[in-house]
């Protein structure tokens, strides 16, 4: 909370204590994935044990997967052979899509966890897998899943004569061959198909090097979890996890991947379940398909093919917009972004982050300025402000490998309905923007769940918004209620939200500058609500207006877009059993509202945008105190701005903040 004080030195100290999370990190997914060799069965083999042993496969590094346009041409020329293979897979696959079965496997060296750490990990993994399985369906693998061996590792010589019967098979074994790995996990032989040596190019006589493993039943994706203090964990500040996929099927769908969880993060006293689940979902979406190394293997199943069966390659799913920014231009993604921004602009592909892009402008994250709050943005925040959004699910659908339950998508609050130019560098510094801010003052995060401070970071490229404070910023946590007398009348309860205000009790000399303050609110209709300040009755707060409160000097500003819009997001709860990723099935009309000032119901609230024209001020008498409050706020910003700029920081994917495990 903001405690009023006439002493500038004390005010500066409070600002220091209330600063935003400043620990920084960087997302290492693309870097890690680039170092991993991805093993893919070639035509004539499948990833199921039912297919029998066939040791031929193609192995790609991430760089090879996206090297040049000529690779795409060669793939196109081989479409007829892939079509035949797809028909074979269609006969083996089940006819209907079903929720993806994710099998988690932990190597023995990762099992030396304390009971508390093990329980934390099991709970987070179970929650993560449950969420992802409820969102994605695949054509299930009919038998036990068996991964392929890397022919370039176990073989010294490969038959390359295309007319030979044993073309692309091993002709001479590598005596130093030991094992297969997925990132830094050794894959058990039980999970792998066998391999053999064919000593003559046209003879079926062979020497078996390794037998088929037993495989994994009821598995469509194998997730290796490695809990360790790796070198990356030690050199990247606050890193909690990183990941990569290592095996794919003939259609390009990832079959196996590894998530490395930094062991020390499980031991932190400030460990949070919802933050860990958020990170694991982010990493799992990467390895399942939201990866720049996989863009060229996405399948076009939009019109004529069911997902997962014989869909042709998309080719290039990205292109440059008029400003040179790389965007994804697949059907579902374009439509999702048009709906989100309320625009019919055909140029609205979903933008990829430009600051972590490769030489082609490709990134495995959404552009933060435009899709902040998405689970796949390059910067993640407090879990209560992050959504599994329509754009991300549309992208996973457009991989062609999954049927996606997009009805479970959460409404992305950031930029909703703001038009095609939202988030552009030319518009984000507009002082009238609802989402962006200027200067470095204190205010409210755009969800109105948290107090915040106007800050930027490298991913925002100079654009600013109110980021949640690190200490006691949550209005909805009762434990944040101060024990001392609060002259601004704040109330911290589950129904409380952040409001811009300069209220102070009339019987005191304390005066408060305009900033974020926590007051109770209660919905009475769509975009209509009451508010309650400490020791007052419920008051109507017309959106777009500022109201006076009996017994207080100053005003409360009533936000007009977020509060009481729809009910697809629940009020955050302290219990880890109510994560930010649960999706409510009720609609706004299902909520029973009352205008009575003392009702006790606690309606669930969401934060969808609604484009309304500003309502007129209720009374002209609020103009003078508003202007005085703004002048006071400006003076405060000028006085402490220079000292406070040094504290500006941001939460990144893989970064840990003082009280929040980051990505």
TrEMBL record:
The chain crosses the membrane at residues 622-644. Zn(2+) binds at residues 282, 286, 365. Keywords: Hydrolase, Membrane, Metal-binding, Metalloprotease, Protease, Signal, Transmembrane, Transmembrane helix, Zinc. One of its GO terms (cellular component) is cytoplasm. Its EC number is 3.4.24.-. GO terms for biological process: cell adhesion; proteolysis. Residues 1-25 form the signal peptide. The active site is at residue 283. SUPFAM superfamilies: Metalloproteases ('zincins'), catalytic domain (SSF55486). InterPro entries: Peptidase_M8. Its cofactor is Zn(2+). GO terms for molecular function: metal ion binding; metalloendopeptidase activity. Binds 1 zinc ion per subunit. PANTHER family: CILIATED LEFT-RIGHT ORGANIZER METALLOPEPTIDASE, LEISHMANOLYSIN-LIKE PEPTIDASE. Belongs to the peptidase M8 family. This is Leishmanolysin-like peptidase. It comes from Clupea harengus (Atlantic herring). The gene is LOC116224598.
